[in-house]
Design a protein that fits this description.
The complex is a heterodimer of chains A (about 300) and B (about 325).
Chain A lengths: L3 E11 L6 E11 L3 E5 L6 H8 L7 E6 L2 E3 L3 H4 L3 E4 L11 H11 L6 H8 L15 H13 L5 E5 L7 H16 L3 E6 L2 H7 L2 E6 L2 E7 H5 L4 E5 L3 H10 L3 E4 L4 E4 L6 H8 L7 E5 L3 H9 L11
Parallel strand pairs in A: 3-8, 3-9, 6-7, 7-8
Antiparallel strand pairs in A: 1-2, 1-4, 4-5, 9-10, 11-13, 11-14, 12-13
Chain B lengths: L1 H12 L1 H24 L5 H27 L13 H11 L18 H6 L1 H27 L1 H8 L3 H37 L6 H32 L2 H22 L8 H10 L1 E5 L20 E5 H25 L4
Antiparallel strand pairs in B: 1-2
Helix pairs in contact in B: 1-8, 2-6, 2-8, 3-4, 6-8, 6-9, 6-10, 8-9, 9-11, 9-12, 11-12
GO molecular function (chain A): ATP binding; ATP hydrolysis activity
Keywords (chain A): ATP-binding, Nucleotide-binding, Transport
Pfam families (chain A): ABC_tran (PF00005)
């Protein structure tokens, strides 16, 4: 059995014969267990990739596997092990939450008794008889997650699950994702809210313009990358002095960003003092997922009207 | 079977479907009631009213005769003004007593099962056709409008099965509705005919049964075609627009290609499936090459579109739409 629950190689999606490319040779590997983040700016191809994995969109190139089985060819065989919410929740507005879930359960050959448990799990037990159209966005999102839990999935794919939720709702979803990951469910969660991802994910894939930019464990991606923020009265002259001293300098709007490598910060102070330059601020900046993300995606121009 | 059960439940839960089914049951009953009322036997009251009308009109005519006798030439009659000859001619032309009898004022024809089959029953079929087309489109149109189609495919990604289950559900409901509506209609007609002592040959009832069966088949095909078109176009409104365009297209077809083109219009073929045949005139049947309908052209320009031809026409259209729809649903991305 493959250790990868989700695997894509050279995945491609073009819209129209001369249209734009939403996914451009993407490689994606999601290991079994834990929570895996799928990051990318708006229009980078996250949702299109997820839709292709789930058979809602056809790829125009490359290969995909779920649980080691090629999809979409073998999708019907593996779909029973996958729960997914793609974009905003979509149910029949005039049916109650319970009726919507019961129809889905019956269609999937799932015991209808699981509906009550799934509704209870997402905290909708008291409102299960209300029509779906009367639900708030948060309740709709929770109902969508309840629908995925009907199957008792081994893989849960959540596309922007906290979109439109208030802080309490975001926290609830985050805790639910963390709990599911801890129970052994592999959760693939796409988002552009990086703080959220960093809090719940064990590993991430970062994409931009439909291509994989980085992939790995979160702690590995953010490790060893401490930079220093330097504020000085003559930044251009100071940058020249530091570069002569072999320090990598990045020029920002109101400060210089220094990558010291193995050097100590005292060397910066010493080099500047030697040229009568005195720093007003020299502070360490620890890398987080956001800085990694911005660093990786800053060279990627936004896709005009690109797919989400 | 599991998916079919789910789709039947989904259909049953839609309020619009329930309203359409109700309309499909009530309107045929109203048409039957109207047909039975319009063919009701003549009562003593009706006869008295007719005699009264006939007498009043006869008196009016006699007054006209008096005017005619004074100036026969202005009425187109010969004879000298005021002469017996003029009176005789004017009376014969304007006030023949035989015209003003009660029987000529009782227009209602008696209930006739064969006429009902080719007249009122066709009207019932047309109403049911509209109902099932709306049923077929709104059912899946709602899935596309709400976006729930994608959620359904996340549960069962076998698209052809999903397509077929939804089509079968619509077809089963259409068949049930048509059967009940036609049974109600014909039961009302049969009971009333019996109560009025109208004898109907068994061959006529045989034709009623055959027509009813073909009506049910046509309605199921229409439901599946409406479903297929909506699955192809993904919108109830666009589908209904296409159906409307087909109706308008029939008129355009006639305008461009002449009266002969009526054979190729969908409404004509639908009526032929229900009634068994449709007679129509062609306008290119003259050896001198002239076109246009000529009065008293006779049978030379009369053609008959019979049921087998119409069934073939409808079947080809339905199969084409279904094939296109399934192929499209299997291949296209689902929003």
């Amino acid at each position: 059995m493959s250790d990868l629950v989700v695997e894509a190689r050279g995945l491609r999606k073009d819209f129209g014969s001369h249209g734009r490319t939403a996914v451009d040779g993407l490689d994606l590997s999601v290991p079994r267990g834990g929570v895996h983040g799928f990051l990318g700016p708006n229009g980078s191809g996250k949702t299109t990739t997820i839709r292709m994995l789930l058979g809602l969109a056809r790829s125009t190139g490359g290969t995909m596997r779920l649980f080691g089985e090629p999809v979409p060819e073998r999708l019907p065989e593996v779909m029973g092990r996958v729960g997914a919410v793609v974009e905003s929740p979509k149910f029949t507005p005039t049916f109650s939450a319970r009726a919507n879930l019961e129809l889905l359960a019956r269609a999937g050959g799932i015991d209808v008794k699981r509906v009550g448990a799934a509704l209870h799990q997402v905290g909708l037990s008291g409102r299960e008889g209300d029509r779906y159209r009367t639900y708030s966005l948060g309740m709709k999102q929770r109902l969508a997650i309840a629908a995925t839990l009907l199957k008792d999935p081994e893989l849960l794919i959540l596309d922007e699950p906290t979109n439109g939720l208030d802080p309490a709702g975001i926290r609830e979803i985050r805790e639910m994702i963390r709990a599911l990951g801890a129970q052994g469910v592999t959760v693939l969660v796409s988002s552009h809210i990086l703080a959220e991802i960093q809090q719940v994910c064990d590993s991430v894939s970062i994409i931009g313009r439909g291509r994989l930019l980085a992939e790995g464990r979160v702690d590995e991606l953010v490790a060893g990358g401490t930079t220093y923020r330097l504020v000085v009265s003559q930044p251009e002259r100071a940058a020249g002095v530091l570069e002569d001293a072999g320090i990598v300098v990045g020029r920002e709007a109101d400060h210089l960003a220094l990558d010291l490598g193995d050097r100590e910060p005292e060397e910066v102070a010493r080099a500047l003092a030697g040229h009568d330059l005195w720093p007003r601020e020299l502070t360490p900046v620890r890398r987080d997922l956001e800085s990694v993300f911005l660093q990786l995606t800053s060279t990627e121009p936004p896709v005009p009207g690109g797919a989400a | 079977m599991r998916l079919l059960g789910v789709e039947l439940t989904r259909l049953r839960m839609r309020r619009a479907v329930l309203v359409l089914v109700l309309v499909g049951l009530v309107v045929p009953v109203l048409i039957a009631a109207s047909q039975l009322w319009n063919t009701r036997p003549v009562s003593d009251g009706d006869r008295a009213w007719a005699e009264q009308q006939a007498e009043r009109d006869y008196q009016d005519a006699l007054e006209l005769v008096d005017e005619c006798v004074e100036a026969p030439e202005s009425y187109g009659y010969g004879g000298e003004a005021g002469s017996d000859e003029a009176r005789e001619l004017c009376t014969a032309g304007l006030a023949d007593r035989e015209w003003y009898t009660a029987d000529n004022y009782l227009y209602r024809s008696a209930l006739d099962v064969e006429t009902t089959r080719t007249d009122a029953a066709v009207a019932v079929a047309v109403v049911l056709l509209l109902v099932v087309v709306l049923l077929g489109t709104t059912f899946v149109g709602a899935d596309w409008a709400s976006g729930s189609m994608s959620v359904q495919l996340l549960v069962d990604p076998r698209r052809t099965r999903v397509w077929v289950a939804k089509a079968l559900a619509g077809g089963i409901v259409a068949a049930g509705l048509a059967t009940v509506a036609l049974a109600l209609f014909w039961t009302m007609v049969a009971v009333t005919a019996a109560s009025r002592g109208i004898e109907t040959p068994s061959e006529t009832w045989g034709r009623v049964v055959v027509s009813s069966v073909w009506t049910v088949v046509l309605l199921v095909a229409a439901t599946v075609a409406a479903h297929a078109l909506t699955m192809l176009l993904r919108s109830t409104v666009v589908t209904l627009g296409i159906v409307f365009a087909v109706s308008v297209g029939s008129t355009i077809l006639l305008a461009v290609f002449g009266a002969s083109a009526i054979r190729w219009t969908l409404p004509t073929n639908a009526v032929a499936v229900v009634a068994g045949e449709v007679e129509y005139y062609v306008d290119d049947c003259y050896s001198d090459g002239s076109t246009g309908l000529v009065e008293d052209a006779g049978d030379a320009c009369l053609r008959t579109l019979d049921r087998p031809e119409a069934v073939l026409y409808v079947a080809v259209l339905v199969v084409l739409v279904v094939a296109l729809s399934i192929a499209s649903f299997r291949r296209r991305d689902v929003p």
